[in-house]
UniProtKB/TrEMBL annotation:
Keywords: Membrane, Transmembrane, Transmembrane helix
Keyword set includes Transmembrane: yes
Protein name: Uncharacterized protein
Source organism: Sagittula stellata (strain ATCC 700073 / DSM 11524 / E-37)
Annotated TM spans: 30-53, 59-80, 92-114, 120-142
Length: 156
């Protein structure tokens, strides 16, 4: 199965519909790890940038450091939501309903359910955005693997 590129596929980034794909457990795991690494990298980048901004504005730097630390330390807890999100994304993607709007909605509800467990409302705020990031990375991983496979009846 060859996944078409964004120019030839109107469902590439639709809010509800998407190409029906069936990601493997390995692909879900890679997407979760990539999402966690991206979140950690973004947090480190924001903190580093905050130290550079501190010479100009200490209040802006303080706010940026806070955001950076939230991103850095969210990696310790968001894996719980990403595991639950993998089930939601898988169920939606095999039915052709893996759009970004449904991913955000799923991230919001998973964040709301996990709010009492984690003890902060940040799960509701970060959940939708991290779910879309996980969806985008999952699509990239699945698309890369399916495009690399030879078509039926041809050799590699």
């Amino acid at each position: 199965m060859r996944v078409p590129d964004a120019q030839h596929n109107p469902l590439w980034w639709h809010p509800v519909k998407a190409l029906a794909i069936r990601p493997t457990l390995r692909q879900h795991g890679l997407a979760i790890l990539a999402t966690l690494a991206t979140t950690l990298g973004a947090g480190i980048s924001v903190v580093t940038l905050a130290f550079m901004v501190e010479a100009v504005s200490t209040s802006a730097a303080g706010a940026m450091i806070l955001v950076g630390y939230v991103l850095i330390f969210s990696v310790a807890f968001t894996w719980i939501g990403h595991l639950a999100g993998a089930f939601v994304l898988h169920a939606a993607l095999i039915r052709g309903l893996g759009g970004w709007g449904l991913a955000m909605l799923g991230g919001f509800f998973i964040g709301a359910v996990l709010r009492p467990v984690v003890g902060t409302g940040l799960t509701v705020g970060l959940g939708p955005f991290l779910a879309v990031l996980q969806l985008a990375l999952l699509r990239a991983i699945v698309g890369r693997n399916t495009q690399a496979l030879p078509r039926r009846g041809t050799s590699a």
